[in-house]
Amino acid sequence: MNPVGRSQGTLNNASLSFNLEEIDRHLPTGGIASGAAHELYYHDPTNRLSVPSYLPSFLAYRTINSYYSEPSSSWDRYNTDHFPFFIVWIGRRCWPTPFSLPLRLLQSSLFIDPPTEKLTLWSIESSLRSPAVKLVISECPRISLATTIRLNHVAKTNCTTALLLRQYNDLMAPSSCATKWLVSPTPSPYSFPLWKLSLIKVRGGTPATLSWTIGMESGYGGREEIPLRVFSTMVNGRHQEEAALKKFGA
Amino acid sequence: MPLPLARALCPEAYVEHFDPVRDTQALLTLARWCLRFSPLVGLDSELTTARGSSAIQQISSRHYGITIDLTGTDRLHGDITQLSISIHTLFKGRARIAVTPTIGSSWALSRYSPLKTPQVILSRQELPSSLYELPLYALRIDQRCVQLLEDVGIRCIGELLALPRHSMAQRFGKKLLYRLDQALGNTEERFITIDSPCTYTQSRIFEPPLTNRRSVSKAALHLFRAVMLQLQQDKKAAKYFHLTVKDTSGYTITKELSLAAATADTSHISSIIEPILDSLHFYGELRELHIIALQIEDLVTEQHTFSASGDRKPTEREKEEFMNHFCVRIGKDRVTRVRLYESYIPERSFSYESAINSQHDLRISERLTPYNLEERPSILFASPEPISTISMLPDKPPSSIQWRDKRLSIITGIGPERIAPEWWRLHPHNDHFAERDYFKIQDELGRWLWVYRDQSSLEWFLHGLWV
Questions:
Q1: How many CB atoms lie within 10 A of CB A93?
Q2: Which of A195, B103, B128, B240 could disulfide-link to B294, CB 3.0 to 4.6 Å?
């Protein structure tokens, strides 16, 4: 059974889990911490302006799915509460292709297109302050350490989670984010893409360099799921799990 | 003239059926607009009496008019003659206007004067001479009375004025004398003013004028709070605010605050207005501030809900406040939601619409084609980017592509998936849409790209990426 998109996982108040054991067990809160800012980078050697899209969509979907799979959720909530809170996408470049995303995610999604970088930052901060918002996904201009501290503080104060999609050039810039992730493409022997997901920084985590090969799984999907699967885990450059790859005969 | 005869004479004539109720309503709207000239504005007394009853069907078109009491407004508008010309211009010269000391003479001159320009008579002594040439109908008397007068050879008001007054009431009825006295100002005439819409407004004139920006912000916030208090007392909320700032040099700045949802919350409006006040640029010293709240709605109170997990769900009001913030600061068109359409053509299967007008519930789209993220890229370009390709075989994926001046070797290709024009659907761009053969290709770095070949031009385009 696909571990993703089922109601077996629960979201505690402190974190948003990937519902992927291979990743969650390496994170101190069992997922990405709620009430904090997280940074995502996409490494594309030929197109340095790209931002990741699939992983933010997956985490947004997990936020929605966790709400509906809470122990307290009822049939009534699932069937009548189509719009519990906002998931805000700031910046046109990070807007995902909508026609293949789950409807429940789209119903809660608000797409904001600020005309300037200054307004982008204002939008991020204002969204994080609002009690109507649960998750903010935003393309992020070049920001200083002081700004990252400020955003992190706002997110913490208001228990809102921010996924800041930053430029690869800023990867080494100092930041007070809770986690820092790098997504880069990796050759796939299948009919679907694979990405290398590297955890560059995690506050309160182990100092090991962690990376995973992740990808969607063929045959799953349709409108109501965003499938994600871990194909291998590398700790300090060494493969830990190759069962998934072997299973697919790679 | 009967309508069939009119149509026979002029076949291209546009016919609009007479609808007195609709016309009266439109006239009432116009009368409300005229409140800017004077606080005392009313419809014609005959029309006001007949409103809401079947008698309105019998009202002559002459009675469709507006009465404005301009007494004492010359200090505000300046010269009355100039004001009447301004009003005439605002109506694009289509209104017949008369300004006189009595309602009756204004009525007569505006309806029956041969001059189309505004008639202004400021002295009561001039009234008899100005009314002299006008027909008897100008006195608002019925047809029977007019017929009686015409039978004795009296055809205009001037001839009527020459008759002995004491016998006039006995011979032609009391109403004739009453109307004549009203026109000449010998009897007072009252009119029923329309109810002005309830306005929530605050203004303040500063003496001495303000020079400190912080003082201006404070004063404006104070006025906004006062307006909000007015609204709260009436259990109302406003969606639109108009702020006018005037400085001593006569320079006026106006700011319009159009919200996504109506509010009467003082702290909410303060948080929205503060950055706008900070961005105000006025020159010299500030003399006047004026705030009007418009688009008034009933205030809806909402009860908070709690979930068992202690994770409080946002209220509708919190969502509305969020929308208000963004719509004011970023713009309504830049805060959007997705609308899905049942279409196979990628760029036509969705659109971004202003979040204010769109529906929250997207379940209408259950019949949509169920693509998954393996079939469609996670990022779709707003417009496909042209690429150059090298293909070994026709109808096969390219073996290498050049995109943004970079040559990429292709190691995997899946396709083609043909998307053809939707001939069953009327779309203005259907004629320009050619068949497309889409391929999902992987380059040597492991990036997956969604490319297509346009079957009419045989050119290649990159339409999306899996990132």
A1: 13
A2: B240
